[in-house]
Amino acid sequence: MVRLRPTVVDSSFHGFMGKQGSSRSPSLWVSPGGGLHYDSYEGGTRYAQDIPSFFVPNEWVHVTWVKSGQEYFVYRNGKDMKKFPAPKTCLLTTGDYDIGRVDNYFVGDIADIRFFYESLSAQQITNMISSRSSS
Question: Which pTM does this prediction carry?
Answer without folding.
Answer: 0.87
